[in-house]
Hints:
By secondary structure, the chain is an alpha+beta fold. The protein has eleven helices and twelve strands.
Amino acid sequence: MTAFIHILSKQFKDLFCLSDAKKLILPVLFLCLCGSLKASGVRLHCKEDSVLVNRILAATAEHGGSFGERCLFAAKEMSGIKSGGRADNDTSGTLMVNLHTLDRLGFINAAMAFAETSTRKLPLFEEFVNNLEKYSRRKGIDEGFASQFFYGADWIVDNVYRGNLKEMTEYLPGGGFKVKTLDNISHHPELYPALKDSVTLDKIKMMEMGYRSHRIPHLKKQSISNKPLHELLEDGDIIMMLSNEIDTDLYDIGFVEMKDGMPYFVHFSPETGEIAEDAYPLPRLFKLENQRFYGYRWLRPTD
Length: 303
């Protein structure tokens, strides 16, 4: 036990640059135990993920800033992570911490979880897991595969209602609405092993019923080049590009970084398939991807 405490002391001293780390070990062990009880259903992809989570937490805490600035910083700290399928696409569907690959919403949820956890006096892995559950599961509760967010609209409705996001789309004139029925998941159950279970599939269908003929607000693509918009955008704002596909809504999503009055984008790069900051401003990305989406939503994370 003494050796274990000595090892933890060294790890926390390295992470948080504390001069007397050993004094923190007993309360840390207590908090870790309490946190692990709540997160007992959560799976860890591998030990490397816990190391990476702790590193990003420490760096984000040291960086500080507003909640949006922390989201942006954490997003950039995840640069190089590859785009992949849902880590929890299996028969259990419970939350998994996996920073080796992420899907688009998983990337946003992770950055927001890093940002919120980093505001604590002593950011802990277990608290990160709890915040990840808060952002990535309907009502903030992990109840298996069907409690995930598969559509941008569902993610926005739930997180706006719980005060985690602010919808900014309707703050600008010249936007509009597009009516869609979001049912892509139930139309392709063969892609999701969890949907072999009829009860889980029924839950997905029930969720999708809420998004039949759903009115999706959007801003016109051309507006991304407007200076009045640039003056309102803040670091860490979220831009969601809306898909042309008839049964889904999310094409791309990422965080805004303002440089010299122009918005840049941190997202999964279409060139590399990895999280990266584009070398060119966001309006140019819109031109390059013009045929693949019809508009966008503007959101602001709130703590």
